[in-house]
Here is the input.
Amino acid sequence: MERSGLAVSHTADFSRRYRGEQVTFHTRVDVLHRVSGYKINIGLPEGLILGSYQPALESSGAPPRFVKDGDGVHVLWHENGPLETGTSFEYQISARVAHVAGEGYLQSEAVVRPETNARSKRQSDSDASMGVARETACVYVRTKAQYLKHLPALYEEDELMGQLLTLFESFWDPIERTIDQLPFYFDPQTAPLDLLPWLASWFNLVLDERWSEVKRRRLLCSAVSLYRRRGTCRGLREYLEIYTGEVPQIIEHRARNLMLGREARLGPGIALGTQNVPHTFTVTLHLPLIEGDDDEVVALQEGERRRVIERIIEAEKPAHTAYNLQIESAG
Here is the structure.
C-alpha cells in the first residue's frame, strides 16, 4: 500500500494453516521519495506465537523492540536516514499457530511511518497527512482436517484421527493447490520464468537467455502463428519485430526488366530479364545504436545482435532462398 514517500507490502507464505504449524510473514518497505528515516510496526495477533525474526540486510543494525498488548505482539524496527529514493528494506518474521486458537482468520498488520519532528506531528491529524503506509496479511486457521468430510460422521469427534489426517493434509495441500492452478503454468503469460524453456521445447524453440523476459514470453505466445506462417514474408517480419521491437522492411527481388527476343532463352534456372537475382530478398532494419563507453564492447554487442538476427532469418526463410541483411541506424 502506498502513501507519500513510503510504500509497504506485507504478505504470508501460507494462506491456510493448522494449529501448531508455522507461518512466515514477509514485509518490504520501498522508499519512493527521500526521507530522514522511518519506523515500522509489524503486529502479530493473539493466536500467533512469535518465533524467529530477521531484519533487513540494509538495516542500520539496531535490534527491534517488542511490545505486548491485548491485541498480540508488536515488533518494531527503527531505520535511521537519510534514506534515498529507490531504497528497499525487507523483513521476515516467523510465528507458530497456537493450539488454543479457534478456527477463523488471523490478521497481521504492518505499519510504516516516516520520521517527523514534534511540530509537524502535532499539526498532522491523520495517517495520510503524516505519510503513514499500512497493509495487512491474513491466515485462515483450521482446527479440523478437511479430509474428515470424506470419512463416516463418527470420525468427526475423533481427535486422534483429526490430528493424523492433518499431517497428511499439510503435506498434500500445497500440491493440490498447485494442481488447481495448473492452467497458469501452461500459459506463457503467467508461467514461472524458469518454466519458459520447457514450454519452448514443445515447439522446438530454444529461448535465448539474453533476451528480455517480455520478448521470451511474447515469442512463446506467437509460436503457433509463427509456425503457420513459417517460410512467408509475414512470418519473418513478425519474428524479427518480436526480437528487435522494430518492423523490418523486406523486399523480394524479381527481374528488373523483361526482354524477349532472339537472345532470350528459357530453361532450368533461367530468369527473364537482366541484373536479376531470383529467389533472393533483402531485409532492412532501422535499429537504435548500442550505447557504451567501450568501443570494443559496443562492437561485440552489435556483432552479436546481427548474428541473432541472421539465425532468425535462416530459421524462417524458405530453404532455397538467399538474402541480404542491412542494419541501419534508427537516427
Summary: The mean pLDDT is 82. The first strand starts at residue 2 and ends at 3.
